[in-house]
Structures are given as C-alpha cells and as structure tokens.
Amino acid sequence: MDTMRDRFAPVVSRILDEDPRVAVVLAEIGLVPFLEAQRRHPDRVINVGIREQLLVGAGAGLALAGMRPVLHTFASFLVERPFEQVKLDFGHQGLGGVLVSAGASYDVSGGGFTHMAPGDVALLDTLDGWSVQVPGHPDEAEVLLRQAIGAGDERVYVRLSVQANREALPVDGQHLLTVREGRRGVVVAVGPLLDQVLAATEGLDVSVLYATTVRPFDAAGLRRAVGASAADVVLVEPYLAGTSTGAANDALADVPHRVLGLGVGRRELRRYGSVDEHVAAHGLDAASLRERISGFLDVGVPGVPA
Amino acid sequence: MTVSTERAPDQNAHQYTDLPRLMRLMTGDEKHGPSATSTLDVLWVLYDRVLRVTPATVDDPGRDRFLLSKGHGPMAYYAVLAAKGFLPVEWLSGFGEFASPLGQHPDRMLVPGAEIGSGSLGHGLPIAVGTALGLRAQGRTEPKVWTLVGDAELDEGSNHEAIAFAGAVGLEQLRTVVIDNGSATYGTTGGIAARFEVAGWSTATVDGRDHSALYEAFTAPHPGRPRAVVARVEPKF
C-alpha cells in the first residue's frame, strides 16, 4: 500500500491543474514528486530551499495576495521551528492556509528525535482557528486534503503518517464515526491507531469511535456516544498523550466523567529502530492498549489480564 | 484591474508640514526622539509620490502593497496614513488606548490601509516575498510589494532567508527599505547594502531625510532583481 505522503504530491498536483488559486510551498523536503507539477506551474510550486521561517512567512504572503497556499515539510520543521510565523503570519494576520506535515511522531524512527514531532497537535492547540485533520489511511488523506485545500480561507493542518489502518473509512472532515457499539465505556481512536484499538478492544463491551478530525473536536458526537449517564472515555492518539483530554472534558462538562488519555509519551526515548518498536515502547500496540483500556474501564474478560 | 496613477484630488489632503502636528496628537509631546521619527520621511515619500494606493483602492488587487515590518514606534506611520486619508485624524488622539484601533504595534485587522500587523521583528520581508510570488502567479506584474525594515531588525535570521531567496529568484516586484539609524548591536561588515548585493539585489544607499534622493532611489529601474534602498538617518540616541 502506498503511504499518505506518496498520495500527497499526485493529489495536490491534480488540484494545481484544476485550481489556479492554489500554490505549493516547499523547503526542499518533498520536492522531487512535485517536479512535474513545477514544470507545468512554475509560479505555483515554490521551493524556498532549507528556510522554514520563509516557508511559513511566504505562505502567508501568498494568502495575502489572494492565493490558497499549501505548505509542506516534516512536522518538526513545519510547526515547531517556525511556530511564531504560524501564530502571527497566519493567525494574527487573519489569513488562511493549509499546512501538511509528514513524519508525524516517529515515522522517521531511524532518524531520531530531531525528526519527530509528537507535540505538533498540542502546540497548534495553543492557537485559535486551526482545524486539525489526522487521516488514518491514504484514501482518507486524499479526501481530507481535497477538503482542506477547498476550504475557502480556513486554516487547516493535515498530519500525514506512514502509519495507517488496513481499510479506509468514509470520513467527512468533521464528525466522529462510530465503529463499534458497547455499554461499558467509549474508546476514541485517532487516525492510524484505529486498527490497534479495534484489536485491543476485541470482545470488550465498549464503543469505539474513530476520529480523523480532532480540531474542532466533535463534542456533540462524543456526547451522543456516551449517553446521558456517567461517562468513561479513553482517547488513543498517535501524538502526545493527553492532547485531546481537555477537548473531551469540555465536551462532557455537564456529565460525570473520567477521561484517560493515551498516546505518545512525553519522555524522549532516545531510541532509533522501527516504527513498530516505537509504537510498542509508547504502549500503543494492541496488547498494551488492551491492558490499559480494560484496566481503566474495568472491562476485563476471562482469561485476559486486566 | 489596474490602479490609476492619477491621484484623486482630496480637499482634506495634508502636507508634509502637517505631520509633526499629527504626531503630537498621539504623544502630546513636542519633542520626538530620532527613533520615533526615523521612518517619517521614507513613509511620506512613499505614500506621497511612489505607492499606487489610496483609501479608495485599499482592496484593489492591482494596488501597490506596503508592509510595515518594523512595527515599533508606528506614530509616523499612523500620521502618514491619517494625512493621506486612510484613517481619520480623530483616531490619533486615542493612540494606545483600549478602545483605539491604533496600538503601539499596528494590527492590520484594525487599521485601514495597513497591509500587515507587525511588532515582532522579522516577519514583514518573508510575507512580502510571498505576496510578490502570489501576485506574479496571478499574472499581476504591475503592483509592487514594498516592505520597511529597521537595520537592527535585519539581525533576525528570517530576513536573511528572505533576502537570499528573493535575490536568487530575481523577484523584481519586491522592494525593501531599510531604515538605518545605527541601532543594530553588532553593526554590519561591509554595510547594510552589501548584505543585499551579495544575494543579487539591486541596492542604493541614500540620506533618509532627503526626499529627492529617496524618490530617485525608490523609482530607479532594476530589471530582473529585487531592490533594497538603505535610508540612513540620525543614529539612535
């Protein structure tokens, strides 16, 4: 299966052909798949070299001139290094754009922590007006990218990952999807962690919701899923653990509830290796998730340690 | 769409000699330090004789853009905008108050005619690069994109990202004015213009109080290259 990032340049290249308002800004990373589009649209596929502050500032300037900018590089260089440009050049200036990251939390596991950004969504959470899309499959990424680029002058962050679920679901860029229904609690799986969550909750009497749009958080969807009585919610996110616990708490402010946030640990592992090894090290593999979810929700099944 | 280079007659038009009075409305102080007025003459020459933008064309996609990157000490900017009718003179006396749209750093969402909000240094030039790219991508080769930075502001690395890129790609529509009041802590080896020249820009260094010299420097042709004008004014006290 191709990756979300493999899908990015072909999808956006077609959009460049269709919509003269769209421009892509790159900082070397991810340029090669855009070379053909750059030949067709030399003024709208812009490589600024290894200059991430300029990447974001120039992207905002394109928006100021009436264009729809799509900015792409690894998450750590797109959101973290030029964070003040993201905050001011888009937010404070009241401009829109689409930030599309690759690398995610540990896609570049062999590259070490310099190429990891598990805090990207939490960091964007300090800003107003950004929607955050976390597709879990290349087909979903395609849908969400098209929607993000077509979203007028909105500010959208699309987080692409090499981690993916086996099957795509019909995501709409807004709502939680109910994948499984149960009575003993609600587990929200974000993006590429759905398969692990489904495996981890097999046979447990819990609901599983699937989120690819985490900001704005579908508060109404979570409220509906938990019902009217006390709520137990587990969030399983492919980035910093607890990133969305505040959003879930706000959604459930007027019902008694408990929320457990699972995700990537804050402590730097200082490890290389494979993505799967990092998944396991952060307790996001199916067996670890099953243990933590069933323990929190008290839904252990016979023969399985809770 | 094009913007006429003819200026509509404005019965309320102010002159250069009105600017000190307009600035006093903001400060209540008749003595301005050089840093507060370092940009005054550059701004006046630009808005009076160079920029193709008026209060009637602030939303015209064919207008010239002026991005004040050095958002510190914006009284001269507000005075010029008021003198040219972009904002009411009555606003000036509320400068910095809670209910006033005019703050210690300008906000484009509040100030008519302000293309960007600024204050944090090093943002205007990269945004100007993108704006020039955006206009070019739309086939709008006529509008010019100006930005004003301070000499100390050039210390910010983001400016060097923009200078290197704009020179390399020959972004002719881009123009930068550097107000040089000698406030950069470590100065510059070879002078400020050298930083731009080495990146492929067309440059000029002029007396930032000499309106004729500024006008000449602002309007000189520079085919295929972005333009930087260093306007030297009195050193920061």
Question: What does this entry look like structurally?
Answer:
Chain A is of the alpha/beta class and 306 residues long. Chain A folds into 2 domains: 156 residues, Rossmann fold (3-Layer(aba) Sandwich), CATH 3.40.50.970; 121 residues, 3-Layer(aba) Sandwich (Rossmann fold). Chain A is 35% helix and 21% strand. In chain A, the strands form 2 sheets. In chain A, strands 2-1-3-4-6-5-10 form a 7-stranded mixed β-sheet, sandwiched between helices. A 5-stranded mixed β-sheet of chain A has the order 7-9-8-11-12, sandwiched between helices. In chain A, helix 10 links the parallel strand 11 and strand 12. In chain A, helix 1 runs parallel beside helix 7 and helix 3 runs parallel beside helix 5. The longest helix of chain A has 15 residues. About 3% of the residues of chain B have low confidence. In chain B, 31% of the residues lie in helices and 12% in strands. By secondary structure, chain B is α/β, with parallel strands linked by helices. Chain B has one domain: Rossmann fold (3-Layer(aba) Sandwich), CATH 3.40.50.970. At the A-B interface, helix 3 and helix 5 of A face helix 5 and helix 6 of B.
The major sheet of chain A is characterized as: 7 strands, mixed
Residues in helix, % of chain A = 25-40%
Distance between the termini of chain A: 34 Å
The CATH superfamily of the largest domain in chain A is known as Thiamin diphosphate (ThDP)-binding fold, Pyr/PP domains
Shape of chain B: globular
What top-tier CATH class of chain B fits best?
A: Alpha Beta
The largest chain-to-chain contact, stated as pair and per-chain residue counts, equals: A-B, 31 and 32 residues
Relative helix content of chain B: 25-40%
The CATH top-level class label of the largest domain in chain A:
Alpha Beta
Task: List the domain count of chain B as a whole number.
Answer: 1
Could you say which structural class the secondary elements and strand pairing of chain B correspond to?
A: alpha/beta
Distance between the termini of chain B: 45 Å
